[in-house]
Structures are given as structure tokens and as C-alpha cells.
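Input record (Table S2, row 132):
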Amino acid sequence: MVAETGTGATGGPGAEAVSGAGTRVLAVAATLLAAVAAARSGPDVEIRVSEDGFDPAVVTLRKGETTRIVLSADEGEHCFAVDALRVEKRVVAGRPTTFDLIADRAGRFPFYCCVETGKAAEVERGEVVVTE
Ligand SMILES: [Cu+2]
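Output record (copper (II) ion complex):
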């Protein structure tokens, strides 16, 4: 005798009981998260820099996408400069620098550390590759 049909879950009066101020706050938070997710279409990219160079030394982005770059230094003060994309960000050890990078055109754009001279300046180099 197992002839149960049409017993779908329909919320019921229990669902109404959890409405109120708390639910409204949660709804607002969810909306904000959705807005942030929509604005940042690209991935997060972590770049470490030291006197030995950038890691990774090649960063691949998609044209028009917002890529969040997290720049961190192992020691001292460094910089991430991409002249072609008009980017120049400083970073000091222990205080990561976060910024959003949007490349408006495709291509290969060299980056370098703008605070180095001599040997370190030759080593601290890389390339942003922007694909269509
Ligand atoms: Cu440097």
C-alpha cells in the first residue's frame, strides 16, 4: 500500500516565519556580492616580485576583462609598471598591493620594476599578454 502521489514540498507557513529585518540584511548582502561579481569578470592573479624577478613573469589576460592583480614583495620596495597600459603600482614587503587591471587592447606589453637600477632592473621584467 504505497500509493502516495502529489506530495511535493511547497514551503508552507514555516517559510514565512523567517522573514523580517535579518532576512532583509541578507538579501542586501547578496545583491552587493552579485554586483561585485558582475564588475570583476576576470580572474585574480597573484604576482610576487623580488630582486630575482617577477613570478609569474608572463601574465595572460583577456581584453576588456577586469583582472584583479595582487602584487606582493618578498623584500624591500618594488613596482609593477606597464607603460603601454598606463599602469604603475608600488609594493612594499608585507603589504600587498591590490588593483584592477583592464586592458583595452590585445597585444604583448612588457612590464618592469620602476624602482630598480643596475642588475635588478634587467632581471625584474615580464610581459602582459592580452588576448582577444
Ligand atoms: Cu623591484
